[in-house]
Amino acid sequence: MKVSIFVTCLVDQLWTSIGVSSVEVLRRVGCEVEFDQRQTCCAQPAFNTGYLKEAREVAERFIKIYEESDAEVIVSPSGSCTAMVRHYPQLFADDPQWLPRAKAIAARTHELSSFLIRVLKIEDVGASWTGRLTWHDACHGLRDLNLKDEPRTLIRNVRGAEFVELEHADACCGFGGTFSVKYPEISVAILDQKIDAIERAGVEAVVSGDASCLIQIGGRLSRQGSKVRVMHLAELLSQRSDG
Amino acid sequence: MSSEARQVILDSIRAHLAASPSYDVEPQIFADERESDPPASVNIGGLFKQNLESVAGHCIITTDATDVLRQIITDLGVQRIAVSDAPELAEFGVVPGANEIFSFDVGITTAQAAIAETGTVVLDSSCERNRLVSVVPPVHIAIVAASRICATLADALAILQSGKELSPAITFITGPSRTADIELTLTIGVHGPQELYVIIDESS
Amino acid sequence: MNHLSSETFRENAKAALADTQLRGALKNATSLFGERRKQAAASLPNWEALRSQARAIKDEALSQLDRYLEEFVRNAESRGAKIHWARDSAEANAIICRLASDYNARVIVKSKSMTTEETHLNQALEAAGMQVVETDLGEYIIQLADEPPSHIIAPAIHKTRGQIAELFTAELGMPPTDDIGQLTGTARTTLRNRFATADLGISGVNFAIAETGTIVIIENEGNIRLTTSLPRVHIAVMGIEKVIPRFADLDVFLKLLPRSGTGQQLTTYQSFITGTKRNAADEGPDEVHILLLDNGRSRMLAHPVTRQSLACIRCGACLNACPVYQQVGGHAYGSVYPGPIGAVITPQLMGIQKTSQLPYASSLCGACREVCPVKIDIPRLLLHLRAEISPRKGSLAERLAFKFWAKVMTSPALYRMSAVAGRVVQRFVPISRAWTSGRDLRPIESKSFHELWTNE
Q1: Structural domain tally of chain B?
Q2: What pTM value is reported for the model?
Q3: Candidates 3.30.1370.60, 3.30.70.60, 3.40.50.10420, 3.40.50.300; correct CATH number of C6-11+23-298?
């Protein structure tokens, strides 16, 4: 299957290994991966902050770029960005010209773990990683895309990994986009509940499907000098025993 | 002044509804799709008792309600007993005037219906003078005929609505009064009764 | 005590975060409520169907609100109730004060009503020289403390037993004790004296049934039964959105509301009041008045997204589930309606002038939407409000920043340059203290993914 990858602006600028790992995993399971150099952002920051005009400009660009691709699906290693694209029909609800185009692109866009499990029906990507780890449910992936079992299934098939369910795995990490800097004290107070749960779980790594959550969680863990590392699901799945 | 306000408010409602873009309302799920009634083999009285006891109410199922009532009164060791105007209760106490209602230790009423799925007794004030007697004294004893226990809350609502117009005051009572307003710690007995006894009379 | 304002939400929140006692109380309360709700919902296999059904009933009622209100009024009046309409808080308070004065009400007892908190009724009655006492234990506590409620269903949730004990000792002369049973007993005894002599009872309304003209009020303590049956006059105050079409509809809501609010299968008492008593000698008030309040609710009907705000049945489940509320509590919002539902209805009821921070005080996690018994899409509402506020009230810097952001994101050349610029900026300029005061920031990659791909 031909996949056009949308790495997200956050991955592009701040965490390229998520993009690299995603490509690797997709190729390993037999996909042809295309990367359109014109890609930038899904428009989530503007949409979530209430700047719909600016959000539409950026969303229109996203739609135009991917309409030109002959890839069957667009895959993204981000639940929140995928959820944003799924919201394009809402963004263009009053625009008869763009609405059908928005719907078409939304229907073609999948989050990585969802693509592997629900579309390709693959639960084991041949990964191995030794250690004790846990999973944080990123909010948009969980509640907008119903991703709960899919990541856990993929993780459970990682050879050598000891999976521990996090207490309140589905509690928000406190990022919330601009919320994290508009209300930083509240953001960190919420984050600390997550950090406490992670410490109690006694794991070496926290895995999640969204770079934004990992930057939030990782930022606090490192500030506190914690040995716990943060890892994106794609990074975990790209690990091999020989690599 | 109020009729002007009425007109302004209704006009505002109509105007804003009319201005609203239409949208897809979620498909209707019809009212008769509800959780299944307890299977016929389930003892309705037993289910009622189970539910009432789970909220700290007392429930006695008997064919001799009078005897049980006497026993409860004896065990409580109380003197001042208020009753509703139900004829069968006359021998047990007095029907209080509104000014005296705070001077009693126990209030006894019948109940016009009961609900098994929740352990609720239903008091209809148009059938019996039960409104204050059932809430002011610290102990309330209610006697209900077993035949008047219905399976579900929906059944009870239907029964209340059948026939003539709704009574001016109907009360559902499920256990003794309670609060968790202080540190979410459950305390039984606040403004309403601290004890509730329901006697299920199987004799008829 | 100075009641906090929505305008200072940011400062309020900071102060709340520094209050360890408050945070402890909040953590216990919200996690307990949340657990109980979860178990109660799980005990009903058709929970999801009930939610859909409840929302459908509310949508039906709201889409023809004028018709159902008129039906309710017609039926209630035919049974002897007197109906009053109030366009806003001031009018509502004036009507009630006038009635209280007409009836020479010397002792007024009140049961919990968020609508009367919204209108600040108690202040108006006191300003008119009348004494009114709250009889719900939580409301009684905050009345003594002169504080607003901090939670929709458990108004004094922010107070420890020690704080309540001190309050009772100071205000009621109660001998010092830490025992919750004794505290409750003190309140019971004190309030019984008021009930015995009250000439006016004021209550709220949970549901108003159009088909029968019935008002339905639910509780655990028994104070509503006493408030609505002992005094000779009863005034029930309701927002216009409380009306539902049919008596039978109550089954759905009575299954959802207690479970969502406290995790109970059913609250201890439900009072179904239809008009006035039939005979003068019967028990109960001689007069029943019902006041219908708009105060901005009718405006919310104008858009499908905002209309769902009116579906709220005031269960408080969203508060308990909200990570923001869990950390800062209800007072920080500066409104009688805090938490997620408060963040969306407060700006709509009060106007966005003084409440504009509230829709942004959310990480959009969606936990509220998940627990709402009537499926209100609160995140969608928050976004709707943000889209109304930002373009008009956002700071100039922010509006320009997003305009610039859109330019960068739609131009490959600018985007490439911004990546380079970002690396330089982050190196030499301490990035937003807002982030870095609590968290480390990931450094910008020396090569973007775009650049890596090109090199492949």
Answers
A1: 1
A2: 0.95
A3: 3.40.50.10420
Cβ(C113)–Cβ(C89) below 8 Å = no
Contact C363 A176 (CB under 8 A): yes
Are the CB atoms for B133 and B109 separated by under 8 Å? yes
User: C-chain residues within 8 Å CB-CB of A43?
Assistant: 409
Residue-wise pLDDT tens digits, B33-72: 445 555 555 799 999 999 999 999 999 999 999 999 999 9
Give backbone dihedrals phi and psi of C208, rounded to 5 degrees, phi first.
-120, 120
Q: Using CB atoms, which residue from C164, C262, C292 is nearest to B182?
A: C164
Could you tell me the residue ranges of all domains in chain C? 6-11+23-298, 310-393, 399-454
Give the start-to-end residue ranges of the domains of chain A: 2-118, 124-237
Quote the pLDDT of residue B39: 53
Whether B195 and C222 have beta carbons less than 8 Å apart is answered as no
Has residue B29 got a pLDDT over 50?
no
C155's CB contacts (< 8 A; 6+ apart) are: B181, C112, C136, C138, C139, C141, C142, C149
- Tell me how far the alpha carbon of residue B135 is from its chain's centroid: 11
The answer to whether C158 touches C329, Cβ cutoff 8 Å, is yes
Nearest residue to C68 (alpha-carbon basis) of B17, A184, A28: B17
Point out which residues pair with A75 in neighbouring strands.
Answer: A5, A110
Would you say C208 and C245 are in contact if contact means Cβ atoms under 8 Å apart?
no
Would you tell me how many other CB atoms lie within 10 Å of the CB of residue A14? 22
Name the residue among C369, C402, C437 with its Cβ closest to that of A184: C437
pLDDT at B22: 75
CA dist., res. C55 & res. C61, Å (int): 10
* A185-229 per-position pLDDT tens digit: 999 999 999 999 999 999 999 999 999 999 999 999 999 999 999
Interface test with C, best of B33, B115, B191, B196 (most C CBs within 10 A): B191
Q: How far apart are CA A134 and CA A73, in angstroms?
A: 29
Strands (E), B25-168: 58-62, 81-83, 106-110, 113-115, 120-124, 139-145, 149-150
Contact C442 A215 (CB under 8 A): yes
Q: Is C325 exposed, middle or buried (0-12, 13-18, 19+ CB in 10 A)?
A: buried
The helix (H) or strand (E) run that includes residue A65 is helix A52-67
CB distance from A93 to chain C under 8 Å?
no
How far, in Å, CA of C105 to CA of C235, rounded?
12
Q: Closest CB to B166: pick one of C87, C214, C284.
A: C214
**What ipTM did this prediction achieve?**
0.96
Q: Which CATH architecture has domain A124-237?
A: 3-Layer(aba) Sandwich (3.40)
Is C280's Cβ below 8 Å from some Cβ in B?
no
Q: State the Cα–Cα distance between residues C456 and C452, nearest whole angstrom.
A: 6
